[in-house]
Amino acid sequence: MLLVAAGAAVCEPLQLSMTPLALAAAGLFVVALCDDGVHVFDRTNSREVQHIDYSHDDAYVRLTQRLPAAGDAGGSCICLATSSQVLRLEPIAIEQQVRELLKRKQFDQALDLIHNTQQAAQASDLGDATAIAADAADAAGGRAQWHHIALAQAGLLLLLECEFERGLQLLQDLPPFVWQPCQLFSMFPDIMAGWLPRVPVRSYWGLHGQQLPPLAELVIDTLELRAATATTPRQQRWRQGQQSKLQLQQEHEQSVTYITASKQQMANYNSTASSPDSRQQQHGKSSSSRGSATSFRALPSSYDADPSVVEALVQQGKTAVAAYLSAVRVQPSMSMLDGIDTLLLSLLCDVGDAAAVELLVEGPNAAAAAAAAATLRAAGRWHALALLLMNNRQPQRALDTWKSLAAGELVESASTTGTVAEAKGDAAAVAVAAAAAAMAAGPHRVSTQVLLSGGG
Q1: Of 321, 156, 297, which Cα lies nearest the Cα of 238?
Q2: CA 284 centroid distance within chain
Q3: How many Å apart are CA 88 and CA 204, to the nearest integer?
Q4: Which residues contact 41 (CB under 8 A, 6 or more apart)?
Q5: Which end of the chain is more exposed for a tag (fewer CB within 10 A), N or C?
Q6: Is residue 303 within 8 Å of residue 310, measured between CB atoms?
Q7: What are 49-97's pLDDT values in tens digits?
Q8: Residue 348, C-beta contacts closer than 8 angstroms, at least 6 positions apart
Q9: Is the pLDDT score of 121 beyond 80?
Q10: Angle at 158 between CA 155 and CA 159, to 5 degrees
């Protein structure tokens, strides 16, 4: 257990299977040397982040059951010593660690590392006027710090895993000079074709490719990859054997928390950090580009996804993106607000949220008028179309729409939310009441009696 000078525990106990021969701390890490090797722990949450095979043949260590260890006060290294050699462990840059964790889809560990590092930096900056001024200057000048890039990359990779809500929450917390909601337009090319040429392309660390693929393609590719990497226990054992054989040539690709100072000091060093299946992080038009560089099974030549599963995930993605756009559209410094509102309206119609559609079209919005009207007609949201027309100062067209809805010439699509749903599906009554309220606000050429009778 790790304690502060006063004796209070600072985190959960370290989980070790045996008594350590040595313990040392540096920076965010605690190193425990045991008979089965070196264990590296994240001191903020007591999670083991790396295991390094290390053995010794030292009589003093065997006799005393201890090994001298020391950590640099600045957190730059940890040294472990026997009578014949010194093992010097140096932490790799946090940014590189996070990048490697994201490559391996170890999102929880990557995000913990980002947030812990950010909190430690903020704590160290307290009272430091120079550091505070530098951070303010970066924000004012639109210069992204590394943790901004890391969070944007994590959010995009989570979207590619169909973890839509989690990924969008990360993106929502980013400043506009790092991420713009319009960068999601590539997921809906049929709707956003007119806006796509103007969308900024930001590659970040390039782990997600240049831009997100269309939503349906993203879902199918994810299901295909899951199917390809699902293994029986026998296949899993074979894969582990293959990974062991290839470990030496793959070692340069693996993420390690610590590296050694020299080969002489690490004659017995061999990192055993596993390299789980990971999607190759370039998502082009061809789904074959998403295979894993460390996967030992080829993707199936043809993959027939269950249409109901695909549709469920697509709807989940649309719902999550709609909720995200609803939250961010009112924030300042949004690029292409007309495109954001146009996409939002289309998504709300697709997921059948009539109440949210009505709220959007009745209030201030920047949706392209022609595209919005076409979307509402295609979705059968006639009451919302009339509200949009009224909001766009076209009262006669709005009243004509309500007249046709009251007469039964137009049929409102079913929904569990919205004004018609609240009226138990009586669209005619809703149309008459809405038209009457509109006419009460000013003189119009269609009388209430015409609406009530359904006459021309």
Answers
A1: 297
A2: 19
A3: 33
A4: 14, 29, 30, 31, 32, 47, 48, 49
A5: C
A6: no
A7: 888 887 777 787 888 888 888 877 776 788 888 888 888 888 788 899 8
A8: 322, 356, 357, 360
A9: no
A10: 90
